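Lab notebook, bench 4. The sequencing result for the construct came back, and we need a structural model before the next group meeting so we can plan mutations. Quick request posted to the team channel:

Model the 3D structure of this chain.
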Amino acid sequence: MAHPKRKTSSTRRDKRRTHDKAVLPTLSRCSATDTVHRRHTAYEVDSNLYYNGKLMIENKA
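Done. Here's the predicted structure in token form:
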């Protein structure tokens, strides 16, 4: 197994880790139902499934 020739400096290590941070998802408000949901994701309101402000699947029950 290969071994590193030199110790990785803390600056180089931290530069590599800059993109490993947690990011909050982008939220949008639906124009039809006025609910907050994640972008580009189907969401449920009163057992009905909406996507992009349009009713996709209506619950019959």
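The two ends are 62 Å apart (CA to CA).
Will bring this to the meeting.
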